[in-house]
Design a protein that fits this description.
The complex is a heterodimer of chains A (about 375) and B (about 325). Chain A is an all-alpha fold. Chain A has a domain of about 250 residues: ABC transporter involved in vitamin B12 uptake, BtuC. Chain A has 17 helices and no strands. In chain A, helix 2 crosses helix 14, helix 4 packs across helix 11 and helix 8 packs across helix 9. Chain A is globular and about 70 Å long. With about 325 residues, chain B is mainly α. Chain B has one domain. A two-stranded antiparallel sheet of chain B has the order 1-2. The longest helix of chain B has 30 residues. The termini of chain B are far apart. The chains are: A mainly alpha (about 375), B mainly alpha (about 325). Chains A and B meet through helix 5, helix 6, helix 13 and helix 15 of A and helix 3, helix 4, helix 11 and helix 13 of B.
Chain lengths: ~375, ~325
Amino acid sequence: MSTPYAKLPAWADYGLIPLINLSVAFIVAGFVVMLVGENPFRAAVILVEGAFGKGTGIAFTLFYATTFIFTGLSVAVAAHCGLFNIGTEGQAYIAGLGIAIVCLSFDSTLPWWLTFPLAIVASALVGALWALIPAYLQARRGSHIVITTIMFNFIAASIMVYLLVGPLKPAGSQAPQTRNFLAGAELPKLNWIIELFGAKIRSAPLNVCFLLALVMAFLVWLLIWRTRLGYEMRTYGHSPKAARYAGISETRIIITAMMISGALAGMMALNPVMGDQHNVAIDFVSGAGFVGIAVALMGRLHPVGIVLAAILFGMLYQGGAELAFEMPAISRDMIVIIQGLVILFAGALEHMFRPYIQALFASFSPKSVGMQAVTGKGA
Amino acid sequence: MDIFNPIIQVLDSTIRLSVPLLLACLAGLYSERAGIFDIGLEGKMLVGAFAGAAAASVFHSALIGLGMAILISVAFALVHGFASITHRGNQIVSGVAINFVAAGSTIILGQAWFQQGGRTPALQPGERFEAIIWPGADAARDVPVIGPIYAELISGHSILVYFAFAMVPFTWWVLFRTRFGLRLRAVGENPAAVDTAGISVAWLRYRALICTGILTGVAGAYLSMVQNGGFVKDMTAGKGYIALAALIFAKWKPVNAMFACLLFGFLDAASIRLQGTPLPIVGKVSVQFMQALPYVLTVILLAGFIGKAIPPRAGGVPYVKER
């Protein structure tokens, strides 16, 4: 399909347009705040102060951001290969099973720095395997990956509920969750880094998973733009026909991309499970997989953008909690609306303002938008 | 007669549980046949349910509630159209966005307007759609076999239930016997051909989405104004996705859609009925297994083990006019 949109300078493409889309999303969210009878500007101030005002707030913001970096990277890796992995949620959820097995087996014998690598491998493996079947079906049977991954989200949820109210629940307990992990499966906190800067932190769950997330962001960058595999993935994502012509195996590339995506989704589970709750509970993912879609779209599928977008969403989650406290009319579900609006404006409507911006650029310097190529075509 | 009554009861709840699925499934049928993927069925049902219950309890009228449910649901469908038809955005991304906006806004607005933790006030008689008792239903109840079938299965449902089942032949007729239907199917298979014939692809797709919005609105109204007597947050609980699964299961055909929805509704009804009771051969079946079954069946179908599900060819691809 030929795109009728002309080129813009890179800074406008990667900076200006996302910024405009994001602003529109927040303006619309502001209207919703007005609709429930609150002042959107005061809400914004409370939100930002709640997220960055105190050391504890910053630590919580980064804790949430850690989760979203993983899920954002997961969505992005699949998207580079032209696949919409909407199953991040389920892959992360089921990965909790892998972590539970490792932690429940080794938490009394091994120190955390041995349990952690094992849990990373287990979570990535389970997440990848959960993505394998939809990937295989897409590659070999042509079943639409969006539909199959949605179905797998529900199947994962059923399995986890079954396990958590049954086999994994300790005898005599009522709560649908595993027993609490011992010290051998508790990850060390990173709050001291923020305290270095003089901020006080009471208790916040920021942990070493944050560093793991940053490492993964770097590795994803390396994979996508510096390896042959990444090149093949981008080729396939851009044009499956061209990839086939170039001798890239469709099956191999789809399955590899989805398994990497699933592995990243699976690692997300480490952060809340080992870093915060120290058990596997029902619905511990609580929508983070879907936030990953918004994060990946907002970050324009680039690891740097994803880290920034994840921090923004971490800010919304942490600040949103404060906001719910200050303004009773606004609960944390406000974030769900903002998330939806970001997906709408940064994702589905990403080209809405492009023609206007293009016209604006063209009126200043026709060359910068390549006007010779498209003159008079009304693009 | 010991086994007969439970069967009637399960079938009765099968009908009740499959109605929202059927309406949403037919809704999806219109848009997907026109080449627009719609995973926003869930969200549109949810806003429909909320708008319906909210308007019904404020204006004390079930009909106003239904009208509002349809109106808001169509508005959301048009947003989907604006993004995916006019601006050629990714249809799946747009559907996901709609689901989130719906999930969040129904809770926020519900809490702000009614202060009952995201619920709407319980609907009073007259604000919801009552069951229609067919003539002679009470008298016929004692007749063996036919009596309970007539009294429980056929009589005693609300108008929306009959509307849902009437929509099945109606949708078939629209799609396969009218000019609009022919064009709608054509635009889902080969929009360029429709365009060449001088028919607007965009307008046709918008009209398909309006049909989708109307039906998801009714589905939502059914949930909050018939099944439940008020809106509860996240009350669709994945029904939009099951409807999507049913649509694939039905291979995008209206009559099949009815059977697929009845099957999924039956699984749901049976899982409620069988909770904790052991079956003769397989023993105790876990609720989670029954709940996961529709999804598992759909995946197996998609894998091509039960026939082959071939979606409309132009589905998911925005139409770009040749320049």
